[in-house]
Protein backbone atom coordinates (compact mmCIF):
# COMPACT_ATOMS: atom_id res chain seq x y z
CA UNK A 1 0.00 0.00 0.00
CA UNK A 2 1.32 3.41 -0.96
CA UNK A 3 0.70 5.58 2.08
CA UNK A 4 -0.62 9.13 1.92
CA UNK A 5 0.98 9.93 5.27
CA UNK A 6 3.32 8.26 7.76
CA UNK A 7 2.86 8.36 11.53
CA UNK A 8 6.00 7.72 13.59
CA UNK A 9 5.23 6.36 17.06
CA UNK A 10 2.78 3.75 18.30
CA UNK A 11 1.85 5.37 21.59
CA UNK A 12 -1.52 6.92 22.33
CA UNK A 13 -0.96 10.03 20.18
CA UNK A 14 0.34 8.08 17.20
CA UNK A 15 -2.43 5.48 17.29
CA UNK A 16 -5.11 8.16 17.65
CA UNK A 17 -3.70 10.26 14.81
CA UNK A 18 -3.48 7.20 12.53
CA UNK A 19 -7.07 6.22 13.39
CA UNK A 20 -8.47 9.67 12.61
CA UNK A 21 -6.57 9.89 9.31
CA UNK A 22 -7.62 6.41 8.22
CA UNK A 23 -11.27 7.09 9.04
CA UNK A 24 -11.09 10.09 6.71
CA UNK A 25 -10.13 7.72 3.87
CA UNK A 26 -6.38 8.35 3.87
CA UNK A 27 -3.85 5.51 3.61
CA UNK A 28 -1.65 5.55 6.71
CA UNK A 29 1.69 3.93 7.48
CA UNK A 30 2.23 3.57 11.24
CA UNK A 31 5.86 3.08 12.25
CA UNK A 32 6.71 1.82 15.75
CA UNK A 33 10.20 0.75 16.80
CA UNK A 34 8.87 -2.08 18.98
CA UNK A 35 9.83 -4.92 19.01
CA UNK A 36 13.14 -3.86 17.45
CA UNK A 37 13.93 -1.44 20.24
CA UNK A 38 12.23 0.01 23.33
CA UNK A 39 12.47 3.30 25.13
CA UNK A 40 13.68 3.03 28.76
CA UNK A 41 10.09 3.51 29.97
CA UNK A 42 8.52 0.76 27.84
CA UNK A 43 7.93 -2.65 29.39
CA UNK A 44 6.30 -4.48 26.46
CA UNK A 45 6.00 -4.52 22.68
CA UNK A 46 2.35 -3.44 22.71
CA UNK A 47 0.89 -0.37 21.07
CA UNK A 48 -0.51 2.37 23.35
CA UNK A 49 1.18 0.99 26.47
CA UNK A 50 0.13 2.50 29.80
CA UNK A 51 2.33 2.43 32.89
CA UNK A 52 -0.61 2.34 35.31
CA UNK A 53 -4.24 1.24 35.15
CA UNK A 54 -5.26 4.69 36.45
CA UNK A 55 -3.19 6.69 33.94
CA UNK A 56 -6.24 8.20 32.24
CA UNK A 57 -7.34 10.03 35.40
CA UNK A 58 -10.76 11.53 36.15
CA UNK A 59 -13.88 11.04 34.04
CA UNK A 60 -15.82 13.74 35.91
CA UNK A 61 -16.83 16.35 33.28
CA UNK A 62 -16.48 19.10 35.88
CA UNK A 63 -12.73 18.49 35.57
CA UNK A 64 -11.06 19.69 32.38
CA UNK A 65 -9.59 16.22 31.75
CA UNK A 66 -13.08 14.72 32.10
CA UNK A 67 -14.48 17.22 29.60
CA UNK A 68 -11.78 16.48 27.03
CA UNK A 69 -12.64 12.78 27.23
CA UNK A 70 -16.24 13.60 26.31
CA UNK A 71 -15.07 15.72 23.37
CA UNK A 72 -12.84 12.89 22.18
CA UNK A 73 -15.69 10.38 22.47
CA UNK A 74 -17.88 12.67 20.36
CA UNK A 75 -15.18 12.68 17.65
CA UNK A 76 -14.83 8.88 17.62
CA UNK A 77 -11.60 8.58 19.59
CA UNK A 78 -10.05 5.11 19.37
CA UNK A 79 -8.25 5.65 22.70
CA UNK A 80 -11.26 6.70 24.77
CA UNK A 81 -13.63 4.17 23.21
CA UNK A 82 -11.11 1.39 23.95
CA UNK A 83 -10.66 2.68 27.51
CA UNK A 84 -14.41 2.68 28.13
CA UNK A 85 -14.68 -0.89 26.81
CA UNK A 86 -11.94 -2.08 29.17
CA UNK A 87 -12.74 0.10 32.20
CA UNK A 88 -12.42 -1.35 35.68
CA UNK A 89 -14.11 0.01 38.84
CA UNK A 90 -12.24 3.07 40.12
CA UNK A 91 -14.81 5.54 41.41
CA UNK A 92 -14.45 8.87 39.63
CA UNK A 93 -11.46 7.72 37.57
CA UNK A 94 -11.29 6.04 34.17
CA UNK A 95 -9.07 3.10 35.12
CA UNK A 96 -8.56 0.30 32.61
CA UNK A 97 -7.40 -3.26 32.23
CA UNK A 98 -4.08 -2.33 30.62
CA UNK A 99 -3.64 -5.59 28.72
CA UNK A 100 -7.15 -5.49 27.30
CA UNK A 101 -6.85 -1.78 26.49
CA UNK A 102 -3.61 -2.14 24.51
CA UNK A 103 -4.78 -5.32 22.77
CA UNK A 104 -8.01 -3.63 21.63
CA UNK A 105 -6.10 -0.71 20.14
CA UNK A 106 -3.62 -3.01 18.38
CA UNK A 107 -6.48 -5.06 16.92
CA UNK A 108 -8.31 -1.95 15.69
CA UNK A 109 -5.14 -0.62 14.05
CA UNK A 110 -4.17 -3.92 12.44
CA UNK A 111 -7.67 -4.63 11.11
CA UNK A 112 -8.23 -1.18 9.65
CA UNK A 113 -7.97 -1.51 5.85
CA UNK A 114 -6.40 1.95 5.52
CA UNK A 115 -3.55 1.38 8.03
CA UNK A 116 -0.37 -0.62 7.61
CA UNK A 117 1.76 -1.09 10.71
CA UNK A 118 5.51 -1.60 10.38
CA UNK A 119 8.37 -2.02 12.86
CA UNK A 120 11.18 0.45 12.20
CA UNK A 121 13.69 2.54 14.14
CA UNK A 122 13.43 6.00 12.60
CA UNK A 123 16.60 8.06 12.99
CA UNK A 124 15.85 11.02 10.71
CA UNK A 125 12.91 13.03 9.43
CA UNK A 126 11.92 12.26 5.83
CA UNK A 127 12.75 14.84 3.17
CA UNK A 128 9.37 15.21 1.51
CA UNK A 129 6.92 12.54 2.72
CA UNK A 130 3.93 13.78 4.72
CA UNK A 131 4.70 12.71 8.28
CA UNK A 132 3.39 13.06 11.83
CA UNK A 133 6.01 12.58 14.56
CA UNK A 134 4.41 11.25 17.76
CA UNK A 135 7.45 9.77 19.49
CA UNK A 136 6.81 11.06 23.00
CA UNK A 137 9.09 12.44 25.71
CA UNK A 138 11.69 9.68 25.27
CA UNK A 139 12.27 10.17 21.55
CA UNK A 140 15.08 8.04 20.12
CA UNK A 141 18.38 9.93 20.58
CA UNK A 142 19.34 9.96 16.88
CA UNK A 143 15.91 11.20 15.82
CA UNK A 144 15.95 13.84 18.56
CA UNK A 145 19.33 15.09 17.32
CA UNK A 146 18.04 15.27 13.75
CA UNK A 147 14.91 17.16 14.86
CA UNK A 148 17.14 19.64 16.69
CA UNK A 149 19.25 20.04 13.55
CA UNK A 150 16.23 20.56 11.29
CA UNK A 151 14.61 23.06 13.67
CA UNK A 152 17.82 25.02 14.05
CA UNK A 153 18.05 24.37 17.77
CA UNK A 154 21.22 23.20 19.48
CA UNK A 155 19.00 20.69 21.24
CA UNK A 156 15.36 20.08 21.98
CA UNK A 157 14.07 21.37 25.28
CA UNK A 158 15.04 18.87 27.94
CA UNK A 159 12.59 19.57 30.72
CA UNK A 160 14.33 19.01 34.02
CA UNK A 161 12.09 20.63 36.61
CA UNK A 162 8.60 21.99 37.01
CA UNK A 163 7.08 23.85 39.93
CA UNK A 164 3.46 23.45 41.10
CA UNK A 165 0.73 25.69 39.72
CA UNK A 166 -2.34 26.62 41.77
CA UNK A 167 -5.72 28.04 40.88
CA UNK A 168 -6.04 31.78 41.51
CA UNK A 169 -9.53 31.50 42.96
CA UNK A 170 -8.29 29.12 45.68
CA UNK A 171 -5.83 31.66 47.16
CA UNK A 172 -6.48 33.51 50.42
CA UNK A 173 -5.93 37.17 49.57
CA UNK A 174 -6.55 38.25 53.15
CA UNK A 175 -3.06 36.84 53.87
CA UNK A 176 -1.29 37.09 50.50
CA UNK A 177 -0.08 40.48 49.29
CA UNK A 178 1.00 41.73 45.86
CA UNK A 179 4.48 43.23 45.55
CA UNK A 180 7.77 42.97 43.69
CA UNK A 181 11.10 43.10 45.51
CA UNK A 182 12.14 46.74 45.90
CA UNK A 183 9.14 47.74 43.76
CA UNK A 184 10.71 46.55 40.51
CA UNK A 185 8.60 46.13 37.38
CA UNK A 186 5.07 47.32 38.02
CA UNK A 187 5.72 47.06 41.75
CA UNK A 188 3.14 44.29 42.21
CA UNK A 189 4.14 41.64 39.69
CA UNK A 190 4.15 38.82 42.24
CA UNK A 191 1.84 37.54 44.92
CA UNK A 192 3.63 36.88 48.22
CA UNK A 193 2.79 34.38 50.95
CA UNK A 194 4.47 35.65 54.16
CA UNK A 195 5.84 33.24 56.78
CA UNK A 196 6.82 33.91 60.37
CA UNK A 197 9.96 32.34 61.80
CA UNK A 198 7.96 29.55 63.41
CA UNK A 199 5.98 28.88 60.23
CA UNK A 200 9.18 28.80 58.18
CA UNK A 201 10.93 26.19 60.33
CA UNK A 202 7.79 24.07 60.59
CA UNK A 203 7.62 24.12 56.81
CA UNK A 204 11.32 23.22 56.41
CA UNK A 205 10.95 20.34 58.83
CA UNK A 206 8.01 18.85 56.91
CA UNK A 207 9.75 19.46 53.60
CA UNK A 208 12.86 17.56 54.68
CA UNK A 209 10.79 14.66 55.99
CA UNK A 210 8.40 14.48 53.05
CA UNK A 211 8.23 11.34 50.94
CA UNK A 212 9.71 11.74 47.45
CA UNK A 213 9.09 9.97 44.16
CA UNK A 214 11.75 7.37 43.32
CA UNK A 215 13.81 8.00 40.22
CA UNK A 216 13.30 5.80 37.19
CA UNK A 217 16.23 3.59 36.22
CA UNK A 218 16.98 5.89 33.27
CA UNK A 219 16.95 9.09 35.34
CA UNK A 220 20.15 10.07 37.09
CA UNK A 221 19.93 12.37 40.13
CA UNK A 222 21.92 15.14 38.42
CA UNK A 223 20.31 18.58 38.51
CA UNK A 224 21.24 21.88 36.94
CA UNK A 225 22.08 24.45 39.58
CA UNK A 226 19.13 26.61 38.57
CA UNK A 227 16.53 23.88 38.88
CA UNK A 228 17.42 21.82 41.92
CA UNK A 229 14.48 20.31 43.83
CA UNK A 230 13.42 22.54 46.68
CA UNK A 231 13.93 19.70 49.17
CA UNK A 232 17.53 19.25 47.92
CA UNK A 233 18.21 22.94 48.52
CA UNK A 234 16.61 22.77 51.98
CA UNK A 235 18.89 19.85 52.89
CA UNK A 236 21.93 22.09 52.38
CA UNK A 237 21.03 23.99 55.55
CA UNK A 238 17.93 25.29 57.36
CA UNK A 239 18.49 28.86 56.15
CA UNK A 240 19.29 27.97 52.53
CA UNK A 241 15.78 28.69 51.20
CA UNK A 242 15.68 32.05 53.03
CA UNK A 243 18.61 33.06 50.86
CA UNK A 244 17.10 31.50 47.75
CA UNK A 245 13.52 31.03 46.55
CA UNK A 246 12.01 32.17 49.88
CA UNK A 247 14.15 35.25 50.51
CA UNK A 248 12.09 38.12 51.97
CA UNK A 249 14.44 41.00 51.13
CA UNK A 250 12.92 44.00 49.42
CA UNK A 251 9.39 43.11 50.51
CA UNK A 252 7.13 44.71 53.12
CA UNK A 253 3.94 43.05 54.21
CA UNK A 254 1.24 45.76 54.04
CA UNK A 255 -0.83 43.84 56.61
CA UNK A 256 1.90 44.26 59.27
CA UNK A 257 4.16 47.01 57.90
CA UNK A 258 7.16 44.69 58.44
CA UNK A 259 9.37 42.44 56.37
CA UNK A 260 8.31 38.76 56.66
CA UNK A 261 10.79 36.18 57.93
CA UNK A 262 10.38 34.34 54.61
CA UNK A 263 8.04 34.44 51.61
CA UNK A 264 6.80 32.14 48.91
CA UNK A 265 6.29 34.08 45.70
CA UNK A 266 3.56 33.27 43.19
CA UNK A 267 3.96 34.32 39.55
CA UNK A 268 1.03 34.76 37.16
CA UNK A 269 0.99 31.85 34.72
CA UNK A 270 -1.65 32.88 32.18
CA UNK A 271 -2.76 36.14 30.62
CA UNK A 272 -6.05 36.23 32.54
CA UNK A 273 -4.51 35.59 35.97
CA UNK A 274 -6.39 32.33 36.57
CA UNK A 275 -3.30 30.35 37.56
CA UNK A 276 -0.14 31.04 39.57
CA UNK A 277 3.23 29.28 39.70
CA UNK A 278 5.08 28.67 43.01
CA UNK A 279 8.38 30.28 42.07
CA UNK A 280 11.38 28.02 42.60
CA UNK A 281 9.32 25.16 44.03
CA UNK A 282 10.33 22.38 41.62
CA UNK A 283 10.18 19.16 43.59
CA UNK A 284 10.30 15.35 43.63
CA UNK A 285 7.82 15.12 46.51
CA UNK A 286 5.01 12.64 45.96
CA UNK A 287 1.77 14.31 44.89
CA UNK A 288 -0.14 13.84 48.18
CA UNK A 289 2.88 15.15 50.05
CA UNK A 290 2.98 18.27 47.88
CA UNK A 291 -0.61 19.07 48.76
CA UNK A 292 -0.07 18.41 52.47
CA UNK A 293 3.20 20.33 52.81
CA UNK A 294 2.58 23.24 50.46
CA UNK A 295 -0.81 23.91 52.07
CA UNK A 296 1.15 24.76 55.22
CA UNK A 297 2.16 27.98 53.45
CA UNK A 298 0.02 30.92 54.64
CA UNK A 299 -2.54 31.80 51.98
CA UNK A 300 -2.34 28.36 50.36
CA UNK A 301 -4.30 26.42 52.98
CA UNK A 302 -7.08 25.68 50.46
CA UNK A 303 -4.94 25.73 47.32
CA UNK A 304 -6.26 23.79 44.35
CA UNK A 305 -3.34 22.37 42.39
CA UNK A 306 -3.66 22.70 38.62
CA UNK A 307 -0.27 21.03 38.16
CA UNK A 308 1.97 19.27 40.66
CA UNK A 309 5.72 19.79 40.72
CA UNK A 310 8.02 17.22 39.13
CA UNK A 311 11.55 16.59 37.95
CA UNK A 312 12.10 14.14 35.12
CA UNK A 313 13.50 13.72 31.66
CA UNK A 314 11.16 15.06 29.02
CA UNK A 315 12.15 15.85 25.45
CA UNK A 316 9.81 18.34 23.83
CA UNK A 317 9.66 21.11 21.26
CA UNK A 318 9.43 24.85 21.73
CA UNK A 319 6.16 24.43 19.87
CA UNK A 320 4.89 28.05 19.87
CA UNK A 321 7.98 29.14 17.94
CA UNK A 322 8.51 26.04 15.80
CA UNK A 323 5.02 24.86 14.79
CA UNK A 324 2.24 26.55 12.85
CA UNK A 325 -1.46 26.37 13.67
CA UNK A 326 -1.75 22.96 11.94
CA UNK A 327 1.16 21.49 13.92
CA UNK A 328 3.57 21.67 10.96
CA UNK A 329 7.19 22.71 11.26
CA UNK A 330 7.35 26.25 9.97
CA UNK A 331 10.54 25.52 8.00
CA UNK A 332 9.57 22.01 6.84
CA UNK A 333 5.83 21.81 6.36
CA UNK A 334 5.62 18.13 5.43
CA UNK A 335 6.49 17.34 9.06
CA UNK A 336 3.91 17.62 11.85
CA UNK A 337 4.18 16.78 15.52
CA UNK A 338 1.62 15.29 17.88
CA UNK A 339 1.41 14.28 21.53
CA UNK A 340 3.83 14.79 24.39
CA UNK A 341 6.72 15.89 22.19
CA UNK A 342 4.76 19.13 21.57
CA UNK A 343 4.58 19.96 25.28
CA UNK A 344 1.31 18.42 26.39
CA UNK A 345 1.47 16.40 29.59
CA UNK A 346 -0.39 13.15 30.28
CA UNK A 347 -1.77 10.20 28.35
CA UNK A 348 -5.20 11.73 27.78
CA UNK A 349 -3.76 15.02 26.54
CA UNK A 350 -1.33 13.15 24.29
CA UNK A 351 -4.15 11.16 22.71
CA UNK A 352 -6.31 14.29 22.40
CA UNK A 353 -3.54 16.14 20.62
CA UNK A 354 -3.02 13.16 18.32
CA UNK A 355 -6.73 13.25 17.47
CA UNK A 356 -6.61 16.97 16.75
CA UNK A 357 -3.43 16.73 14.64
CA UNK A 358 -4.95 13.86 12.67
CA UNK A 359 -8.04 15.93 11.86
CA UNK A 360 -5.98 18.98 10.89
CA UNK A 361 -3.70 16.87 8.65
CA UNK A 362 -6.63 15.08 7.01
CA UNK A 363 -8.25 18.39 6.17
CA UNK A 364 -5.04 19.71 4.60
CA UNK A 365 -4.41 16.58 2.53
CA UNK A 366 -7.99 16.38 1.28
CA UNK A 367 -8.46 20.08 0.51
CA UNK A 368 -11.15 20.27 3.18
CA UNK A 369 -9.30 22.51 5.56
CA UNK A 370 -10.13 22.17 9.24
CA UNK A 371 -9.21 24.79 11.80
CA UNK A 372 -8.65 24.22 15.51
CA UNK A 373 -11.71 24.04 17.78
CA UNK A 374 -12.83 27.17 19.65
CA UNK A 375 -10.83 28.27 22.69
CA UNK A 376 -13.71 27.49 25.04
CA UNK A 377 -13.58 23.75 24.22
CA UNK A 378 -11.10 21.45 25.95
CA UNK A 379 -9.49 20.47 22.63
CA UNK A 380 -9.25 24.14 21.70
CA UNK A 381 -7.71 24.98 25.07
CA UNK A 382 -5.08 22.27 24.55
CA UNK A 383 -4.34 23.64 21.07
CA UNK A 384 -3.92 27.13 22.54
CA UNK A 385 -1.39 25.72 25.00
CA UNK A 386 0.70 24.14 22.24
CA UNK A 387 0.58 27.27 20.08
CA UNK A 388 1.29 29.49 23.09
CA UNK A 389 -1.84 31.60 22.68
CA UNK A 390 -2.95 31.42 26.31
CA UNK A 391 0.47 32.13 27.84
CA UNK A 392 2.02 35.42 28.80
CA UNK A 393 4.54 36.43 26.16
CA UNK A 394 7.61 36.15 28.37
CA UNK A 395 6.84 32.66 29.70
CA UNK A 396 8.76 29.71 28.28
CA UNK A 397 6.76 26.85 26.79
CA UNK A 398 6.39 24.12 29.41
CA UNK A 399 4.51 20.79 29.45
CA UNK A 400 1.01 21.01 30.96
CA UNK A 401 -2.02 18.88 31.65
CA UNK A 402 -5.28 20.35 30.38
CA UNK A 403 -6.79 22.60 33.06
CA UNK A 404 -9.40 25.31 33.43
CA UNK A 405 -6.79 28.09 33.40
CA UNK A 406 -6.23 27.32 29.70
CA UNK A 407 -9.85 28.27 28.94
CA UNK A 408 -11.14 31.82 28.51
CA UNK A 409 -12.60 33.23 31.74
CA UNK A 410 -16.30 32.98 32.36
CA UNK A 411 -18.31 36.20 31.97
CA UNK A 412 -18.81 38.50 34.91
CA UNK A 413 -21.85 37.55 36.89
CA UNK A 414 -21.24 33.80 36.76
CA UNK A 415 -20.80 32.76 40.37
CA UNK A 416 -17.79 30.78 41.53
CA UNK A 417 -19.94 27.73 42.18
CA UNK A 418 -21.39 27.85 38.64
CA UNK A 419 -18.17 28.44 36.67
CA UNK A 420 -17.29 24.84 35.91
CA UNK A 421 -20.86 23.97 34.91
CA UNK A 422 -20.98 27.05 32.69
CA UNK A 423 -17.70 26.10 31.01
CA UNK A 424 -18.86 22.55 30.34
CA UNK A 425 -22.18 23.61 28.79
CA UNK A 426 -20.41 26.28 26.73
CA UNK A 427 -17.86 23.73 25.50
CA UNK A 428 -20.51 21.17 24.52
CA UNK A 429 -22.28 23.70 22.33
CA UNK A 430 -19.10 25.21 20.86
CA UNK A 431 -17.66 21.85 19.83
CA UNK A 432 -20.87 20.93 18.04
CA UNK A 433 -21.00 24.23 16.14
CA UNK A 434 -17.32 23.83 15.19
CA UNK A 435 -17.86 20.29 13.88
CA UNK A 436 -20.88 21.37 11.84
CA UNK A 437 -19.00 24.30 10.31
CA UNK A 438 -16.19 22.00 9.08
CA UNK A 439 -18.50 19.12 8.11
CA UNK A 440 -17.09 16.75 10.72
CA UNK A 441 -19.09 13.85 12.12
CA UNK A 442 -19.87 14.38 15.78
CA UNK A 443 -21.89 12.34 18.27
CA UNK A 444 -24.05 13.68 21.06
CA UNK A 445 -22.35 14.53 24.34
CA UNK A 446 -22.25 11.75 26.93
CA UNK A 447 -22.44 14.28 29.78
CA UNK A 448 -25.68 14.10 31.75
CA UNK A 449 -27.54 16.71 33.74
CA UNK A 450 -26.99 14.61 36.83
CA UNK A 451 -23.21 14.90 36.40
CA UNK A 452 -23.50 18.68 36.22
CA UNK A 453 -25.88 19.05 39.14
CA UNK A 454 -24.43 20.92 42.12
CA UNK A 455 -23.84 18.80 45.23
CA UNK A 456 -26.60 18.99 47.85
CA UNK A 457 -26.06 21.71 50.41
CA UNK A 458 -25.07 20.50 53.83
CA UNK A 459 -27.42 21.50 56.61
CA UNK A 460 -25.97 23.84 59.16
CA UNK A 461 -25.92 22.63 62.72
CA UNK A 462 -26.63 24.60 65.87
CA UNK A 463 -25.69 24.02 69.46
CA UNK A 464 -28.34 23.25 72.05
CA UNK A 465 -28.19 24.39 75.63
CA UNK A 466 -26.65 21.03 76.57
CA UNK A 467 -23.81 21.61 74.12
CA UNK A 468 -24.97 18.99 71.65
CA UNK A 469 -25.46 19.79 67.99
CA UNK A 470 -28.68 19.40 66.13
CA UNK A 471 -29.63 20.12 62.51
CA UNK A 472 -30.71 23.70 61.93
CA UNK A 473 -33.96 23.98 59.96
Give the topology.
Blueprint: E1 5-8, H1 12-23, E2 28-32, H2 64-74, H3 78-85, E3 87-88, E4 95-96, H4 98-111, E5 115-119, E6 131-133, H5 141-151, E7 157-158, E8 165-167, E9 177-178, E10 190-195, H6 197-209, H7 230-234, E11 262-268, E12 275-278, H8 287-294, E13 305-307, E14 315-316, H9 319-322, E15 328-329, E16 332-337, H10 347-365, H11 378-387, H12 419-437, H13 449-452, E17 461-463, E18 469-471
Parallel strand pairs: 1-2, 1-6, 2-5, 6-16
Antiparallel strand pairs: 3-4, 7-14, 8-12, 8-13, 9-10, 10-11, 11-12, 15-16, 17-18
Helix pairs in contact: 1-10, 2-10, 3-4
Describe the structure.
The chain contains 13 helices and 18 strands. It is of the alpha+beta class and 473 residues long. Strands 5-2-1-6-16-15 form a six-stranded mixed sheet, with helices on one face. Strands 9-10-11-12-8-13 form a six-stranded antiparallel sheet. A hairpin with a 2-residue loop joins strand 15 (328-329) and strand 16. Helix 1 (12-23) packs parallel to helix 10, helix 2 packs parallel to helix 10 and helix 3 (78-85) crosses helix 4.
* Structural classification: alpha+beta
* Topology, number of strands: 18
Main sheet specs: 6 strands, mixed
Count of separate DSSP helical elements: 13
Please report the distance between the alpha carbons of the first and last residues.
73 Å
For the largest beta sheet, what order do the strands appear in spatially?
5-2-1-6-16-15
Q: Note the beta-strand portion.
A: 5-15%
The proportion of residues forming helix, as a percent range, comes to 25-40%
- The dominant shape is globular
* Rg of Cα set: 24 Å
Give the uncertain stretches in residue-range form. Answer: none
Mean pLDDT: 88
Amino acid sequence: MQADITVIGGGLAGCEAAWQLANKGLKVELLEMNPLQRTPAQQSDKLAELVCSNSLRSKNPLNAVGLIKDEMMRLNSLIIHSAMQHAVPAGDALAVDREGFSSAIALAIEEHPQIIRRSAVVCALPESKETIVATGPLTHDELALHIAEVTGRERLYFYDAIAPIVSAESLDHSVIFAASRYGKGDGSDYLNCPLTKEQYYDFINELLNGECMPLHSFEEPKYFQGCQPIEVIAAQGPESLRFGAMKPVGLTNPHTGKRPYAVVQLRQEDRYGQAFNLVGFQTKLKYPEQERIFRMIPGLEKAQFIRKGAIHRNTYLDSPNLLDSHMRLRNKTNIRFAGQITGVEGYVESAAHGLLTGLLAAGDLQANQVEAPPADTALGALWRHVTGEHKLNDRPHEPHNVNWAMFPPTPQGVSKGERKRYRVLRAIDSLEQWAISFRLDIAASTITGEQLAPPPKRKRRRKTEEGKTQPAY
